[in-house]
Amino acid sequence: MSGDKTGTRAVVLGGSIAGLFAARVLADAYDEVLIVDRDVLTGVEGPRKHCPQGRHINGLLARGQLAMEELYPGITQEIFDDGVPTGDLAGHVRWYFNGKRLKQQVAGLTCVAASRPMLEKHIRRRTAALPNVSFREQHDILGLVTTADRGRVTGVRVQSLTGGASEETVEADLVVDATGRGSRTPVWLEELGYPRVPEERKKIGLGYVTQHYKLLADPYDGDLSINPVAFPEVPRGAIFTKTDGGRVELTTYGLLGDHPPTDQEGLYAWVKSLAVPDIHDALQNAVPLDEPVAFRFPTTLRRRYEDMDRFPQGLLVTGDAVTTFNPVYAQGMTVAALGALTIRDHLHTGAAPVPAQYFRDLARDVIDPAWEMTNTVDLTFPGVQGERTPQVRAAQVFLKLVQKAATRDGKVTAAYMRGAGLVDKPDAMKRPAFVARVLWNVVCGAVGERLRSRPGPRPGARPGPGTASAAPAGSRSEDLVSAG
Fold first, then answer.
1. Where do the domains of the chain lie, and which CATH numbers do they carry?
2. In Gene Ontology terms, what is one molecular function of this protein (predicted)?
3. CA torsion sign, 333 to 338 to 339 to 343?
4. CA 399, 402, 407 angle in degrees (round to 5)?
5. Residue bearing the bigger pLDDT, 99 or 463
6. pLDDT at res. 7
7. CA-CA distance, 145 to 324, in Å (whole number)?
8. Residue 428 neighbours by CB distance under 10 Å
9. Could you give the CA distance from residue 48 to residue 234 in angstroms, rounded to a whole number?
């Protein structure tokens, strides 16, 4: 294929959602965009062979939905028109933190309750519709091609997986690696004489199991999903959500090696062990549509390309190939979308992006806030190894107060979910008015619990001054507390 270029070309390694998002923004700046992947991509509607997480819940956070809509105007409605249910992340999801249910309040956070194959199908269809985007399917990616001084990437070496084909070189003005956690860019760079890419790993020992059901009775009462979140005392959690095809999707998980079983009876028993009974009760009126499928995720991983002193021109990395978050927090696809917008920001001059500047902005504006948020939560589990700095401990204390306040106040829930959905920056929850609201609800809740736990007067005893029964009629202690 070398020698047939007539214009500028960008090559995207990997047809994942991150690769599709990247191709979308590159199509505005390059004459040709080519996506290379080992899988068959076009026309595929089910889980792909080389996307093992395609059989499990993949959440798109509210900020990810906004970014997706910005990249593909009208796509959200197209997905809903294809039978995907929706709701509000704070108003129509039944959240349980520390075993306690949060108050629900609509916060303008659109949930797209699509299965991974459904979401991928729509994003791929819209990307493929761009006239300058094409796919090189069922091809293995063998390595990078560079200038003689190895200072610039000029293409990639690929080979067909269908048999009999020889290796070929695809020339490119820009190569974007979107091949996911298994990215070989760190290995290729070392082979080219570049330093080792700094990495940060944290062992979380996550394992989860997914199964789909048809419900014979509706347990949701108007909600979209029921989500009991794992916490140190019960390090097991689940997401039980309506999804496309009139199905319900369950992904239940455990941390630090405590993993759900894949036999049906064992899975039901596991679900019964969750902190709340809602999902187990619902499964009494549900018919399994497939077999339970397991997935293991031992460590989170962050490749700190922003810390490298040298990096070749003509090469960028995006999505899980840069950072793989704890998937429980559903940040991966959203960060991939925001990463594509970061690439776009570095294409606006028409010149090739400068990798060092791109990686700096990606780390500071996209990865850091999400990474710090999930790191704070991961380190609440004593068995997770990592540095618990005074800042981390303070953040954990405040987060627990927020969660406690959210059990009483829907406005706290809405603000919390705007942060968790990456719509608001973490600093939004540090505003004095919000901190005051959190503390007020926590104090009022504590006072209420204390009053409710007081023993009542002895039979026949006369109420004395200051006792609850001495309060004016119609002003029970519970009413006084809730008035706060």
1. 9-60+114-198+304-373 (3.50.50.60), 202-298 (3.30.9.10), 390-452 (no CATH)
2. monooxygenase activity
3. positive
4. 135
5. 99
6. 87
7. 26
8. 13
9. 33
**CA triple 103-230-249, angle to 5 deg:** 80
pTM: 0.88
Examine the pLDDT at 89 and tell me if it is beyond 60: yes
Residues 6+ away with beta carbon under 8 Å from 123: 17, 20, 21, 68, 72, 75
Per-chain mean pLDDT for the chain: 88
Query: Percent of the chain having pLDDT more than 70?
Result: 88
What tens digit of pLDDT does each residue of 299-340 get?
Answer: 999 999 999 999 999 999 999 999 999 888 889 999 999 999
User: Quick one: CA torsion of 285, 287, 288, 289, rounded to 10 degrees?
Assistant: -140
Convert the pLDDT of each residue in 196-244 to its tens digit: 999 999 999 999 999 999 999 999 999 999 999 999 999 999 999 999 9
Sheet holding 153-160, edge to edge: 139-146, 153-160, 168-171
